[in-house]
Amino acid sequence: MQQIIECVPNISEGRDMDKIQRIANVVNDIDGVNLLDIDPGKSTNRTVITFVGPPEAAIEAAFLLIKKAQEEIDMSKHSGEHPRMGATDVCPLIPISGISMEETAAYAKKLGERVGRELNIPIYLYENAASSPERKNLAHCRSGEYEGLDKISKPEWKPDFGPDKFEGSVKKSGVTAISARDFLVAYNVNLNSTSSRRANAIAFDIREAGRLKKEGGLTGKVVKDENGNPVRIPGTLKAVKGIGWYIEEYGIAQLSLNLTNISITPVHIAFDEAVEKSRARGVRVTGSELVGLIPLQAMLDAADHFLTKQKRSLGISEKEKIKIAIKSLGLDDLKPFHPEEKIIEYMMKKKGGKLLVDKSIKDFVEETASESPAPGGGSISAYAGAMGVALGTMVANLSANKRGWDDRWEEFSKVAERGQAYMKKLLFLVDEDTNAFNKIMSAFQLPKSTNQEKEERKKAIQEATKYAIEIPFEVMKTCYDSMEVMLEMAKNGNPNSITDAGVGALCARAGVLGAFMNVKINCGDLNDKDFVADILSQGRELQSKTETLEKEIVDLVEKVIG
Questions:
Q1: Has 78 been annotated as catalytic?
Q2: What pLDDT, on the 0 to 100 scale, is given for residue 28?
Q3: CATH class of 185-348
């Protein structure tokens, strides 16, 4: 798996779009790095920039961005609602795939050392890159903000890298905090109030750190333990940081929450808790706002949460789930919410080019009919199987929503969820079959001038051919497995839609038999005869089982329709 990290620098400029664009655009100078999002805030006077790429490329892009921000932003003239201490205030690195947190922390330290040495910017390392326990907390590192940066000359506040005097160029650049951390969701909850004091009180009710305990209420002395440390009353949610503020841009107060580990406290739980704690203080939540990007799974989990509350099937399409999440969380309360611009996987897909399955049916059919040999029978077999199980899934969803069957919604929801999983896998295999064909073509184009090149080319052709057998065989297995959805719906689903289950079974059968043709023709070019014999034997067994199961489903359908 390719190593990918995400970098989310926060710069202290949210109003001058030309300046923001100049700073963000330097990321595009580095090959392999994708700039995914630029999210400015006027009231906070801060912009969250998001990009992804391989580690070395990503930290090179981060260095260039920090350098450009140093040139463009004068912190001695900066003001805004958000806590800050530098032109690039924070620059966290987040492991996305193929890389551990420990490796990511090493890259954060490498970046921090270079920025301190070459740009003369003081650097604090925080979170998983921190040099001491107290510096793990960003709020600790940033205490006193820009106005309190005389502290860097004190031994206990000496930066991890860079100068330790608040003078010269440091007065312009301020200090930057660099980290390696888990995926953090910056999440604001909108209130029907203009009171930052009330918003702050609600945030204290929720955030893990809670509030200081005081004698006799809010105005009393802070209670201390036997060691002289302040006693805190914890909030209700773990892995949540938060404050309340008033946003002049929107004319409302917000809870500004950082969800530091969404596997502990996901977005939908934070939202529900905000609703409850606000209601207890006479305030109403009107919606919410995402700052930067969010993982797709977090949105799908939110949709499942709210669908379950409504006793609705969880087996609906991904697109419909995203709509449910947006409306349930009120993410379009302040401005339109565009999933393709806010969900990280959608942004990466957008940058990576269009897949076959993203084309319209008309475009897909026309591309299949063109002179190009791909997409071919393997991709079409996978597509047929996906369409078949889509029909079975539709019957499950209709059954879950059938009047009088309210107590069975969960039963059908589980079938629909399995159908969605089969469909998603088959849609992946539509493109992967074409990729397998392209691997063979690429192998044939390898040089063959020397004996070594000839051997390497021969090996590559055989490996690609084997893959081009394995992919359609996977189509066969998935199409066959998906027929359990159609069988279940033919037996127990909404009888008004039983023919859809039957047509789904016919499509799945076509997927199995069509994919087996691809398996057989590609087996002729593979030298590994033991592998060929084994996979052909499995294929014949799958074909036989498919035809038997198809007949069972069709017989059930015919019995009902007469």
A1: no
A2: 93
A3: alpha beta
